[in-house]
Amino acid sequence: MIIAAIVATDLKNAIGKNNKLLWHLPADLKFFKQVTMGYPIIMGRKTFESIGRLLPGRKNIIITRNKSYTVEGAEVVDSIKKALKSSVAEEKVFIIGGAEIYTQAMPHIKELYRTLVKHEFDADTFFPRIDHDQFNLIWQECHEANETNTYGYCFQKYERVK
Ligand SMILES: NC(=O)c1ccc[n+]([C@@H]2O[C@H](COP(=O)([O-])OP(=O)(O)OC[C@H]3O[C@@H](n4cnc5c(N)ncnc54)[C@H](OP(=O)(O)O)[C@@H]3O)[C@@H](O)[C@H]2O)c1
Q1: What is the pLDDT of residues 10-50, one digit of tens each?
Q2: Which ligand 1 atom is nearest residue 69's CA?
Q3: pTM for the full model?
Q4: Structural domain tally of the chain?
Q5: What does the radius of gyration of the chain's CA atoms come to, in whole angstroms?
Q6: What is the CATH classification number for the domain harbouring 130?
Q7: Atom nearest to 115 CA in ligand 1
Q8: Residue 108 belongs to what domain range?
Q9: Which atom of ligand 1 is nearest to the CA of 19?
Q10: Does 98 sit behind a cis peptide bond, omega within 30 degrees of 0 on the bond before it?
Q11: Distance in Å, CA 90 to ligand 1 centroid
């Protein structure tokens, strides 16, 4: 099973504020859907509540320490280890955030899909620093801002080399 992560960050690795995303970029939502469709997605309880609904076509796995937390249609577990174990038969699984979950899962991440949003936002939540000795950028596709996507952005794929 390949453990992958997908994230959108600004130029300083910011990912959120007040349990919300920092931007509305339809192109990134489309990219997220395309990349993750069909694979299990693992998220922290706060990210789930920020999204506010299950994401269709994917097994939704929510991590919380609250033993009585339930969400109909989702699998709720109390550790990252259990989240990964429940998907072990899958070809690939995606860690989709937020910061607490990315940080703890980082040592296990083999593939990282990152949308780099070319702006600096006021934020309270950040993706951990990407160690470029450990991750190689293997693909990148950049786009200018336009009427629907108001910031420039690059889709990037990194692979762990060590
Ligand atoms: N830009 C992006 O790509 C992106 C992606 C995802 C999220 N975000 C943003 O990130 C922010 C949310 O991130 P966050 O770091 O605050 O929260 P989070 O990682 O989504 O969730 C944190 C929660 O996960 C549970 N948790 C964490 N570690 C655990 C462990 N080891 N065992 C069991 N449960 C554990 C706890 O839930 P309980 O408190 O219930 O125990 C904890 O409060 C929001 O602003 C969101 O919009 C951005």
Answers
A1: 999 999 999 999 999 999 999 999 999 999 999 999 999 99
A2: 40
A3: 0.98
A4: 1
A5: 15
A6: 3.40.430.10
A7: 3
A8: 2-160
A9: 45
A10: yes
A11: 23
